[in-house]
Design goal:
The chain is α/β, with parallel strands linked by helices. The protein contains nine helices and eight strands. An eight-stranded mixed β-sheet has the order 3-2-1-4-5-6-7-8, sandwiched between helices.
Length: 257
């Protein structure tokens, strides 16, 4: 029997934006059951223990750890079976897991590794969980993308971050935006709301500890900000934006593809 709570899976949730999103959603409503997705149970449990010890009094809804590595089909299939058996459905899928390779390597290798997580993994997860989302009365699929994947901004001489290269990352997020657009079109027939979300430049573990320090010094935003925006999306507060063409931005409005 399906749970009467709103079941929300957040991938890549043991740190950064994913971690803060789990916290934001749990503090928002006791009617949310949050699945903290992590590549390993150990990392996921450590994140949950930390969350409960530091913010326990503010957490309302239940949080469960679930192992899911978006590049490993076996863990994806196991996660699907676990959700189906224990909860019966999935209401919201937040495809947050992603990488940005900063180690020196040839461009083709970097491109393949980046696409493996940032695009192919998202396809695998969504494809596996689609049947469970179809059981929801109000399903959402949220792809955490980036304005760095905007083709329009890449060629805009006034764009603030135009001199940042990151070609492999940019291409993967541009492809992810197209995936979101295709799924929005394809899944409309069964009432699924699909969007690409821009979290902005935030402090995260995306580029390792050195990258984290660089972001802190450079004035990157607290990941709690996009987490709060994602909670608003789940609450339906940004539904009007989802119907527009472009990425839903954390600060409101739409960014160009």
């Amino acid at each position: 029997m399906a749970s009467n709570k709103t079941i929300i899976l957040v991938t890549g949730a043991s740190s950064g934006i994913g971690y803060e999103t789990v916290a934001a959603l749990s503090t928002t409503s006791a009617d949310f059951h949050i699945l903290l997705g992590s590549r390993s149970v150990e990392k996921g449990q450590k994140a949950l223990d930390e969350l409960q010890s530091t913010r326990g009094s503010s957490l309302k809804g239940p949080i469960s750890v679930i192992q899911i590595d978006v590049t490993d089909q076996k863990t994806i299939d196991a996660a699907r079976k676990q959700i189906e058996t224990q909860l019966g459905k999935l209401d919201v899928l937040i495809n947050n897991a992603g990488i940005l390779i900063y180690q020196p390597m040839d461009q083709l290798t970097a491109l393949r590794e980046t696409f493996e997580t940032n695009l192919f993994g998202q396809v695998m997860v969504t494809e596996a969980l689609e049947p469970l989302l179809k059981k929801s009365a109000n399903p959402y699929i949220i792809y955490v993308s980036s304005e760095q994947g905007s083709v329009t901004s890449r060629l805009d001489p006034e764009y603030e971050y135009r001199n940042i290269r990151g070609d492999s990352y940019r291409m993967s997020k541009a492809a992810l935006n197209m995936l979101a657009a295709c799924h929005r079109f394809n899944f409309a027939e069964w009432g699924c709301k699909v969007l690409a979300f821009n979290p902005g430049w935030c402090v995260s573990n995306l580029t390792g500890e050195k990258g984290r320090e660089m972001r802190l010094k450079g004035g990157a935003r607290d990941p709690k900000e996009p987490a709060a925006a994602l909670a608003d999306i789940v609450l339906g507060k940004r539904d009007a934006d989802i119907e527009k063409n472009g990425m839903v931005d954390l600060d409101g409005g739409i960014l160009p593809w």
